[in-house]
Amino acid sequence: MKKFWITDGKVSIEEVVALVTRREAGAINTFIGTVREFTKGKKTLYLDYQAYIPMAEKKLMQIGEEIKKKWPDAETAIVHRVGRLDISDIAVVIAVSTPHRADSYEASRYAIERIKEIVPIWKKEHWEDGETWVGNQLETTPYPKGYPEVKNND
Amino acid sequence: MKKFWITDGKVSIEEVVALVTRREAGAINTFIGTVREFTKGKKTLYLDYQAYIPMAEKKLMQIGEEIKKKWPDAETAIVHRVGRLDISDIAVVIAVSTPHRADSYEASRYAIERIKEIVPIWKKEHWEDGETWVGNQLETTPYPKGYPEVKNND
């Protein structure tokens, strides 16, 4: 079963948790990223996420492997949604199961930081008063060259 | 709506998450405690949790208030199950939503540690070869006096 994937539909938390539930686990930490209405006082109406899907899924799998090396007893599943997301919609769910709770928190936190560092998913913010491509999720680089270009005023 | 409660039925993760989902939140951390099959090489068949329910719910609410003081932007919901739980059943779900992700992890971790410190819930382990009352969840005290007594071989 696929444990690292990109979807353009609604995300089910229970589905992601089920993928890591097992007899050896006593702890499951999940991180759920949702669309927030206000960022530094600016109002978001909705978001568009775009991904280069094969590469994004490969990078999510890589994060799972990194976690396995650091926390050999951990099982991880991650789904990230793309397309249009409204306020409070779920953009990402990470679930990590471990025998004991401390590891589940640490590995889950590691996963979300790595997603923002290495997974090629771009976010377009549709503000009340305009639109901006935020670039990568750390917001340190612009929408990259070489990926299909999307105009700011499409 | 009740956000801190004890139940003797199956726990729905989505229900707990829904209680903290809101337009101001960009992050929801959940911690899910499940019944693990092996503890230090000993095989568990199933668990019984018992709680003094009014006090347990009051203590869960207190944890919510403590979180509100430490992380004013956080919203918390917690459910703990009692009765017989089989392997992989969910015993506890904590959900904490915050505007930004770091706080959601910290407040969620705080909640599970406090549950184990102050909430009067006792666990009876039904091992392959016998039964033991584990006492409180930190496993530092025996089944307390003053609560209805349960015999080890009931």
TrEMBL record, chains A, B:
InterPro entries: MoaE_sf, Mopterin_biosynth_MoaE. It comes from the Bacteria. Gene3D superfamilies: Molybdopterin biosynthesis MoaE subunit (3.90.1170.40). This is Molybdenum cofactor biosynthesis protein MoaE. The lineage of its organism: Bacteria, Bacillati, Bacillota, Bacilli, Bacillales.
